[in-house]
């Protein structure tokens, strides 16, 4: 079942530089793709989804679903295929500053943060400590500055917030103040949506402003594995839709624990759970802007703990992206979730291959990909900066070899081969050196002798210095009078800054 691209849903969100298109890497062959999709449709038709709220289940049954005696809602194959065919193929995510927006879908790769880390690796002490609201602010300020990170889904839980409403309100405010790119947050309760969106309107300076420029997407867990709806998540989803907030809906079964141990089986169940989220969106409003975070997590079966940096995690995430790209549904993959506790060699190789495979497979968004440590239990400002360097190289690899009309110039090759003997001074070299090639900000390309003479600093040493420099730059996109009005209206606990 291959689908054509569909029109963009949501507000206009121009990109200064088009995102590279992935999809060259295909961990599943065509027969494997069809077998998994067929299995997912069969799961929805045969086993269905449990714990669907009665009112929503009644709407689904009226649209063609069936409800078993045990309450599970089952969806006929044709009903799911119809929902896929009319789902949004592209979703616009405006930034707070409009030209920082993204258009998500079609395999164009964007990299961002994510997760719910509770710890911070403090570079000043070398120790882990509980994440605070100030840490969230610093991380999101870095997201707003770093060139290869395109959006900021809140990466840490501020543990100094004493109750859920304060956490949701202050998370929303801190993310919007820190970062002009698209942001994403989750909510503890559907009741928190109204005041948070009211705050967003105030930040934009007009009532109803967020409906026209929804710079924040809602990150919602709609399913609990195996094959159950999350009732609170569905309530939050409906309230977010009422505010025209773009959705990123998530399922994250863990292979060998809450999904089958085989990668193929885990992908089939996970795709069924992902499409179960689509069935909710399609029942409420066909074509609503929704991005599908299909995240097949992996267990280390020696302990049962999640492993985010394994080879299995890399190939499963890439396969999930491949499946959603095949169906024409905007996708989010999980990658970069190293099991390493510090930004060391293990972190480098686990982040490198997991993010690269997801990007090469055409994941539209890659969450959890930067700044995370310890299987997403911790975050690090310096790791975020290091990972931005890595992502620049990965995004260049996704572009591949570009065959322009002037890419091969036989006359120029003849002239250089019989003349100067090098291309260093050629006009084409000078013209393309900054577009054909990328250059690391932190990675060291000096000779060993020059590196020693410069102090023999590690990439961590350089990252500590560079991070401190970046954090001296204060965001200016939120006008001071609007911030003052928000602080007067709500219990905002982030200290006032410059």
Strand count, sense and barrel status of the largest sheet are: 8 strands, parallel
Report the total helices.
17
Head-to-tail CA distance between termini:
54 Å
Q: For this structure, what is the CATH class? A: Alpha Beta
Give the percentage of residues in beta strands.
5-15%
Rg of Cα set: 23 Å
Tell me the total number of β-strands: 22
**In which order are the strands of the major sheet placed?**
6-20-19-16-14-11-10-9
Helix-strand category = alpha/beta
CATH architecture: Alpha-Beta Barrel
Poorly predicted runs are 11-16
Average pLDDT value?
A: 94
CATH topology: TIM Barrel
Name the shape in a single word: globular
Count of domains: 1
What does this structure look like?
There is one protein chain. This protein has 498 residues and is of the alpha/beta class. It has a single domain (1-46, 86-400, 440-498), classed as Trimethylamine methyltransferase-like (TIM Barrel), CATH 3.20.20. It has 17 helices and 22 strands. The protein has helices spanning 30-46, 54-63, 77-86, 133-145, 164-178, 193-204, 209-212, 231-242, 263-284, 311-327, 345-360, 381-399, 410-417, 427-432, 448-453, 459-470, 480-489, and strands spanning 8-9, 66-67, 73-74, 90-93, 102-104, 110-111, 119-122, 127-130, 152-153, 183-185, 216-221, 223-224, 228-229, 247-251, 254-255, 290-294, 297-300, 305-306, 331-334, 365-367, 372-373, 378-379. Helix 11 runs parallel beside helix 12. It is globular, with a radius of gyration of 23 Å.
